[in-house]
Amino acid sequence: MAKNEVIINSGLHKIASAQAIALANQAKNIHLNIGDDPQVHDVLAFLVTAGLSIELYFKALMIVGRSGRVTKGHQLKKLYDEFPDFLKESLLKEYQTQQADIELPIQVFALIQRSEQPSSPDSQKTFSNFNTFDTAIESINNIFTRSRYFFEEVNQSDYSYIEYPVGQIKAVIFALDATYNAFLANAFMNKEPQ
Q: How far apart are CA 169 and CA 164, in angstroms?
């Protein structure tokens, strides 16, 4: 067992998934309360909550699929990379069913801390890619910790950018929930490693 792993009772996936669902519902409520005039602090609350929901879905799948062996940490890409191909294929397939959400525009916030008028943010800056489940996870890899501590990035020298990819995050959570429930329903029984 690697030192970044723990082994817990495999039945605890139910608690992890219940937390994931509760946090996803809270993220949805935060988004609904934000309305048409998002403020950065509300967006950050949404991102922290949604990011933790995604992390807990990954860990619920790990618990149930790896006999209680769970990888520690908040980096979504590291967690995702440990999944077998059959689960990655399911996540991709389920994510792609949410095309309308994936294609929603992404708002970007640019913050800087200066007393004088700063130059405009870089309108040519390249932002994240949410075309596939893989690229979405890469794009939100550190969403929980980065959003939680975003204030530490805001400084006087350059803009700090934060994206608000509501539809894309909704599609990620949908894919995780659908794949988790399919796993519980034994949809992958012939594909699981022995």
A: 9
The answer on pLDDT for 117 being more than 70 is: no
Architecture in CATH of 5-103+141-149+166-184 = Up-down Bundle (1.20)
**Which whole-number Å values give the CA distances from 98 to 45, 124, 168, in the listed order?**
24, 28, 9
Could you give the dihedral angle defined by the CA atoms of residues 82, 177, 179 and 83, in that order, rounded to the nearest 10 degrees?
A: 0
Q: Which sequence spans correspond to the domains of the chain?
A: 5-103+141-149+166-184
pTM: 0.92
Helix or strand (DSSP H, E) at 2:
none
| Residue 132 three-state SS | coil
- Among 118, 136, 120, which Cα is nearest to 128's? 136
Nearest to 70 by CA among 81, 59, 78, 80: 59
